[in-house]
């Protein structure tokens, strides 16, 4: 894999409109979501069908944790009217158990003003649920969408709460 030049800081805003960067984000997503699909016991995991082109044309914001010049983890967010939505938080499996997801989450929660932050994950994804609860998120609702994977939404009130 060819590496793209990043600033030397650990967390960088990623230019997903750059095809090479979008493909690196795609690789992290694929590697991470394959592990998550196995964890929750599902073969047809919707996030795995997202293409590099989808990422390249996305209007969401991407931030990456950079280690050794490579993207080790990605957080994808949408910020609209002080409503912070965490669309995805993925860590490449070769960087698991290093606290990188926590660092990215802390970065986003500390960098943006929001009245409410929200995230969704599979009910069976206990590591993700533990991570979000550790960062002050609380359960909002559970439901089963048409793809059949039971989901959980968690929310966190603004920083002043």
TrEMBL record:
<keyword id="KW-0012">Acyltransferase</keyword>
<feature type="domain" description="N-acetyltransferase">
    <location>
        <begin position="12"/>
        <end position="159"/>
    </location>
</feature>
<dbReference type="InterPro" id="IPR016181">
    <property type="entry name" value="Acyl_CoA_acyltransferase"/>
</dbReference>
<dbReference type="InterPro" id="IPR050680">
    <property type="entry name" value="YpeA/RimI_acetyltransf"/>
</dbReference>
<keyword id="KW-0808">Transferase</keyword>
<dbReference type="InterPro" id="IPR000182">
    <property type="entry name" value="GNAT_dom"/>
</dbReference>
<protein>
    <submittedName>
        <fullName>Acetyltransferase</fullName>
    </submittedName>
</protein>
<dbReference type="Pfam" id="PF00583">
    <property type="entry name" value="Acetyltransf_1"/>
</dbReference>
